[in-house]
């Protein structure tokens, strides 16, 4: 039983990670000579037991046979199609062999030809187990679970349900023998109607004098039960309205985002946004780049997570430069780039002119003329 349980527990992990396991790796790990040697040297306590090594060798052998058969039938002109068919055949063989083994062990009821069929079987088994477990729960707990799955706030749901359980536990015999309980029921009922505490205490005292408190408590108990039921329905209705408002708000946000991106011709001046760039930008904002522990992460969230401090420094610096303004100040960056390029060009021209002047002649008059030309160029570039 222990081996069977361990195999069953590890099966889910095998299915989820099957893409990382290839038939080639099984073949490499279990070559025919090694398998023969292991068979002759290993003693098994049970002749009908199947070891993991034997299962892998069997899978690899059958996959190899299938691959050989596929290769002899396929045309050499359709290499890509033949590889696809061979891969599908190998996968089918693996899951068919695995399900046959599981059926022999009593874990599954039938043989499956592919991964999806086997996975769906275990998914169905798990869902049925959950349904059976829930069917055996008390009705109050089932109600909490059902409403919570519909988005009803758990704390309010628990508060209402606990009140209902407490009220349902009070019967006539318990009520008639408990004076304090009678007072509390009447008190809570009048509080729900908005009476102040001093007025309520006077009403309770009067009812007690007239020997009517038990009767009022019985009526109050019935009224309080109805009030809690109404509270639950109001809470469920409010939750539905809030969910609908959130859905409409989300749709409006997505529509606004889509329209804004469509109408945006460029973000950085001079760099046009074509249709593909707009589509990529929309998907980057609205679709998760990955998922970690059940939480969706966008590309920007991943960048922030990689270097939180550096991300914040850059983000705030860009905001300081005005890049997030309604009309981004990209001209500050372009002006600095243009100034830097102009200074570099000016320096190169100055050095070139000096070199030409020195080589042309040593005549002072010519040097003065060239110097005047150089000064004139400097004046032009400094403007």
Describe this structure in words.
The protein has 383 residues and is mainly α. The protein is built from 17 helices and two strands. Strands 1-2 form a two-stranded antiparallel ribbon. α7 packs antiparallel against α8, α10 packs across α12 and α14 crosses α15. The protein is flat and about 130 Å long. 8% of the residues are buried. The N terminus is likely disordered.
Tags for this entry?
single chain, 383 residues, mainly alpha, two-stranded antiparallel sheet, 2% strand, flat
Query: How many β-strand runs?
Result: 2
> Could you give the order of strands across the largest sheet?
1-2
Rg, rounded, reads 40 Å
End-to-end separation: 91 Å
Structural class: mainly alpha
The gross shape turns out to be flat
The helicity comes to over 70%
Bin the strand percentage.
Answer: under 5%
> What's the helix count?
17
Low-confidence stretches: 1-5, 18-50
What's the SSE pattern? HHHHHHHHHHHHHEEHHHH
Number of domains: 4
Tell me about the largest β-sheet: 2 strands, antiparallel
pLDDT averaged residue by residue: 75
Outline the fold blueprint.
Elements: H1 2-16, H2 23-29, H3 32-41, H4 52-73, H5 79-104, H6 115-135, H7 139-149, H8 154-168, H9 172-176, H10 179-192, H11 197-209, H12 213-263, H13 275-286, E1 290-292, E2 295-297, H14 299-306, H15 308-321, H16 330-360, H17 364-382
Antiparallel strand pairs: 1-2
């Amino acid at each position: 039983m222990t081996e069977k349980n361990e195999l069953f527990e590890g099966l889910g992990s095998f299915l989820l990670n099957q893409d990382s396991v290839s038939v080639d790796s099984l073949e490499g790990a279990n070559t025919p000579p090694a398998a023969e040697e292991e068979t002759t040297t290993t003693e098994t306590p049970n002749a009908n037991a199947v070891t993991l090594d034997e299962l892998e060798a069997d899978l690899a052998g059958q996959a190899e046979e299938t691959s050989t058969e596929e290769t002899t039938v396929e045309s050499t002109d359709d290499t890509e199609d033949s590889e696809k068919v061979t891969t599908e055949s190998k996968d089918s063989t693996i899951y068919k062999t695995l399900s046959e083994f599981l059926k022999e062990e009593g874990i599954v009821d039938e043989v499956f030809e592919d991964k999806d069929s086997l996975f769906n079987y275990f998914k169905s088994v798990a869902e049925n187990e959950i349904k059976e477990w829930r069917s055996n729960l008390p009705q109050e707990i089932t109600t909490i679970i059902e409403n919570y799955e519909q988005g009803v706030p758990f704390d309010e749901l628990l508060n209402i349900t606990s009140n209902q359980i407490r009220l349902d536990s009070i019967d006539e015999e318990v009520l008639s023998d408990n004076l304090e309980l009678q007072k509390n029921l009447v008190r809570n009922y009048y509080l729900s109607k908005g009476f102040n505490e001093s007025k309520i205490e006077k009403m309770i005292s009067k009812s007690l004098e007239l020997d009517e408190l038990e009767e009022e408590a019985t009526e109050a108990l019935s009224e309080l039960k109805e009030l809690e039921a109404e509270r639950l329905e109001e809470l469920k209705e409010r939750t539905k309205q809030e969910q609908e408002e959130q859905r409409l708000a989300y749709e409006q946000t997505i529509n606004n985002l889509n329209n804004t991106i469509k109408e945006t011709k460029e973000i950085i001046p001079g760099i046009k946004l074509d249709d593909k760039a707009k589509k990529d930008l929309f998907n980057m904002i609205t679709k998760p780049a990955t998922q970690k522990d059940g939480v969706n992460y966008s590309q920007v969230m991943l960048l922030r997570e990689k270097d939180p401090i550096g991300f914040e420094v850059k983000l705030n610096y860009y905001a300081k430069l005005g890049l997030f303004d309604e009309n981004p100040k990209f001209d500050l960056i372009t002006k600095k780039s243009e100034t830097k390029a102009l200074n570099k060009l000016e320096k190169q021209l100055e050095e070139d002119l000096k070199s030409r002047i020195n080589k042309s002649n040593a005549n002072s008059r010519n040097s003065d003329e060239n110097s005047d030309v150089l000064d004139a160029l400097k004046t032009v570039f400094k403007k």
